[in-house]
Design a protein that fits this description.
Number of strands: 11
Strand content: over 45%
Radius of gyration: 13 Å
Structural class: mainly beta
Oligomer: single chain
Distance between the termini: 40 Å
Shape: globular
Order of helices and strands: EEEEEEEEEEE
Number of helices: 0
């Protein structure tokens, strides 16, 4: 059974940092493309970042480029999203997803990130 479990969300002040984690199980994590997707209040889903295997090529939405970093630890079957210089507009529920944009086949339950002073 495929499982994706996010953690690491919370309340942070503008300019602060958070690191989200997504623990994966039930599939070959080291060879799977993985993505982060977010949904702000009252908005639709927005792709944030993806990482492609096996060489871990990364791609980012323009809105987060230079501030967010997607990475993996294959030994721990874990996907990360390091978020720096957070802005109020980054407030959203963040989901990890197995697959590339347009081809997600599994989703986590989401973790709330709130950026507010």
């Amino acid at each position: 059974e495929v499982q994706l479990v996010e953690s690491g969300g919370g309340l942070v002040q503008p300019g602060g940092s958070l690191r989200l984690s997504c623990a994966a199980s039930g599939f070959t994590f080291s060879s799977s493309a993985m993505s982060w997707v977010r949904q702000a209040p009252g908005q639709g889903l927005e792709w944030v970042a993806s990482i492609y295997r096996p060489i871990s090529t990364t791609y980012y939405a323009d809105s987060v480029k230079g501030r967010f970093t997607i990475s993996t630890d294959n030994a721990k079957n874990t996907l990360y999203l390091q978020m720096n210089s957070l802005k109020s507009e980054d407030t959203a529920v963040y989901y990890c997803a197995k697959g590339a944009p347009g081809a997600y086949d599994y989703w986590g339950q989401g973790t709330q990130v709130t950026v507010s002073s």
